[in-house]
């Protein structure tokens, strides 16, 4: 996934670029680097928690339980928002959160797994070590926000490439698993378009959970997610 690019861009707008790290380490205030190592869960985890690659996470995953509908003519899946009484935006946030649960993110990171809290300021706080959510978890959070797909067409329409970095910024929109790009300072201008990129993630997620008149479907299978 290309969340690493987004991570680097966020970091450089928060510290003196001339002193910033351009290697694979984590910058500490812009003065030198330290190795980015996985959390070791020093001291063990609290009762009901277990150690994962991002730190201690709850073993009791409270996933959403919504009525899911399958349309046999289009082979698409929908949440029956009419029955659940929730908006598409609310359901998109729940799926964002459920994805983060599947990534075994700690509680401090789960708080960012909503389009209301997936913000530039919150991500910057993680980068500056002002938040308990570990830096490496931003990649998983961004992957979940994008639902792991390529949003390039939307980003083009939103003008993400209209920076001095040009079309390079479009790689930030492709969050398919396995897409990794070498980072450098030429990506810094792309951060101007963070909200445009995020809006593509939101638009896609909201569209997947629009209300569907399941009563009009010839055959619908409903089951818990």
UniProtKB/TrEMBL annotation:
Instruction: Identify the domain of life.
Output: Eukaryota
Which InterPro entries does the entry mention?
DB
| Keywords assigned | Signal
Domain Domain of unknown function DB stretches: 99-201
- Residues annotated as signal peptide: 1-20
| Protein name stated in the entry | DB domain-containing protein
- Please tell me the species this chain comes from: Thelazia callipaeda
């Amino acid at each position: 996934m290309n969340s690493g690019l987004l991570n680097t861009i966020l970091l450089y707008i928060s510290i003196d670029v001339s002193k910033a790290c351009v290697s694979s380490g984590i910058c500490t205030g812009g003065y030198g680097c330290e190795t980015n190592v996985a959390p070791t869960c020093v001291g063990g985890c609290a009762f009901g928690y277990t150690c994962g690659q991002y730190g201690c996470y709850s073993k009791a995953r409270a996933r959403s339980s919504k009525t899911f509908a399958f349309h046999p003519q289009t082979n698409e899946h929908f949440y029956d928002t009419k029955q659940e009484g929730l908006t598409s935006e609310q359901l998109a946030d729940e799926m964002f959160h459920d994805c983060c649960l599947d990534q075994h993110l700690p509680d401090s990171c789960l708080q960012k797994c909503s389009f209301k809290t997936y913000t530039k300021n919150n991500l910057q706080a993680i980068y500056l070590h002002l938040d308990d959510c570990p830096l490496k978890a931003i990649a998983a959070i961004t992957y979940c926000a994008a639902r792991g797909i390529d949003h390039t067409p939307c980003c083009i329409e939103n003008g993400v490439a209209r920076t001095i970095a040009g079309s390079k910024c479009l790689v930030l929109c492709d969050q398919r698993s396995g897409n990794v790009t070498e980072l450098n300072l030429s990506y810094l201008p792309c951060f101007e378009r963070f909200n445009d990129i995020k809006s593509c993630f939101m638009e896609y997620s909201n569209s997947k959970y629009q209300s569907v008149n399941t009563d009009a479907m010839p055959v619908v299978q409903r089951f818990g997610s």
